Amino acid sequence: MKKKYQVVGIGNAMVDILSHVKDEFLAENGVEKGIMQLIDMQRAVELYDHMGPAQEISGGSAANTIAGIAALGGRTAYVGKVKDDQLGAIFAHDLRAQGAVYQTPFAPKIDSHETGRCMVLVTSDSERSLNTYLGVSESLGPDDIDTAMMAEAEWLYLEGYRFDGAKSKAAFAKAVTACKNAGGRVSLTLSDPFCVERHRDDFHEMISDHVDLLFCNVHEMQAMYPADSLEQSLKLAANEVEIVVCTASEDGAYILNGGGLEHAHAQPVDIVDATGAGDLFASGFLYGLTAGFDMLTCGRMGCIAAAEVISHIGARPETDLMELFREHGLV
Known about the structure:
Blueprint: E1 5-10, E2 14-20, H1 23-28, E3 36-38, H2 41-50, E4 55-59, H3 61-71, E5 76-79, H4 86-98, E6 101-102, E7 116-122, E8 128-133, H5 147-151, E9 153-159, H6 166-181, E10 185-189, H7 193-209, E11 213-217, H8 218-224, H9 230-238, E12 243-247, E13 253-257, E14 260-264, H10 277-290, H11 295-309, H12 321-327
Parallel strand pairs: 1-5, 1-9, 2-7, 3-8, 5-6, 9-10, 10-11, 11-12
Antiparallel strand pairs: 2-4, 7-8, 12-13, 13-14
Helix pairs in contact: 3-10, 7-8, 8-9, 10-11
């Protein structure tokens, strides 16, 4: 029997605040280039005050992935916490408008924390430096998990960033149990090398015990599975996970499934903003996987979706991804 959802995502619920800045801005404001840093509310306000013109776009890594699958016509739902405030309303509206189901209860107006936001500082080389205030997203817990929804998922897609919170780990465990008991499968994205460093033991336990599909980029792969070469790191990962997918920027993506290695070539594009590249790669790949395509085609779909999102500002697709797949003869 066909399940209600092809993919259900769980992760941070954020609104991205994007601004183009010079490298000098990063230095003057103590921002480390090219990584994600967790900040508090005071720091978020301080950075916002110093930024130039900015654009507010709903984000959150796994939420971007779910939005991409929904844009392709996939049956999707998302679980992530926002507050009953202006940014929370923007997040919920944007995700639902894309076609995804979003039913996570809002944190009340009286909550001392606000909806999470990520200050995305984009430099002239298209590198993005992320400064993330998690806000109420950090309070996601087991009570926010609808086990009936998890049981209706063909695949869960778990965001590594959301391991920053004891209640969220318990939420993941509840979701995984409900999904697996109903015959579903679990995917995980490692999210960031520093995330790996913070949660290596928890990641190892989840990967070896529950994960069927692991998403990561080269840096995350080598942080999770240190070795003398990427090839060796990939082999270590493949010993624990059935499907390993490792993106490598302009080199495309490497896919291991049952011991065989395949390489999906990157789609050439002029990079405007690299935000969301990995998120939309996962959209294309998971859509292809749940639609029954072979692994290499899934990888090509991921590369095309990633290329689309880095061709403009923001981490949600602006072009019809299915039409792009058609143009490349994939569907």
